[in-house]
Amino acid sequence: MSDEGDDLRELYQELILDHGRHPRNFHASPDAQREAVGHNPLCGDKLVLYLTVGEDGHIVDASFQGEGCAISVASASMMTEMLKGKTAAQAKALWTYFEGLCKGSAGDDDAILASLDEDDASRLQALAGVRHYPVRVKCAMLAWRTLESALDPAVAKKVGAE
Questions:
Q1: CA-based Rg of the chain, rounded to a whole angstrom?
Q2: Calpha distance 4→10 (Å, rounded)
Q3: pTM for the full model?
Q4: pLDDT-based confidence at 12, cuts 50/70/90?
Q5: DSSP for residue 27
Q6: Nearest residue to 37 via CA among 136, 147, 137
Q7: Per-residue confidence (pLDDT) for residue 161, from 0 to 100
Q8: To the nearest 5 percent, what fractions of the chain are helix, strand and coil?
């Protein structure tokens, strides 16, 4: 691999380590209307995802709590940052695209790529490096699969509902 490729891989690793050590949005959200629990029984990673959705359907806030490996925590941290301001449809598109990146099957989906700002695209690329370590794909995907549950009204726990 070229020096430029090595530098990029090192930058991505630093980004993952930073989010793993200092996760963003790591708290239970008191205003969340939806919550979903994710668990990877193979490694013990667990998380609870909290979503606050505005009346216009945009995700106003996303946060999480839990424990897991650096990749699992970093993925949840980066995902919660990316979700803010997105609609459920945009969040689902991100999930689908990221899953494809992790599995090496993502194409150049212009609609999704156009909806990403440069930071989001960089974060997804950093996380997608797990495709080189198949056993770690489940770690990176845990938060995203939990997001899928949180977005599904039939599955998500309605916070504050009786």
A1: 15
A2: 10
A3: 0.86
A4: confident
A5: S
A6: 147
A7: 40
A8: 55, 20, 25
Write out the two tokens for 67: 């424990």
Q: Which amino acid is at 126?
A: A
Domains parsed from the chain with CATH numbers: 3-158 (3.90.1010.10)
Spatial neighbors of 115 by CB under 8 A, at least 6 apart, are 90, 93
Give the contacts of 113 (CB within 8 A, at least 6 positions apart): 121
> Does an H or E element contain 9, and which?
helix 3-21
Q: What is the 3-state secondary structure (H, E, C) of 93-144?
A: HHHHHHHHHHHCCCCCCHHHHHHCCHHHHHHHHHHHHHHHCHHHHHHHHHHH
Q: Is it the case that residue 90 has pLDDT exceeding 60?
A: yes
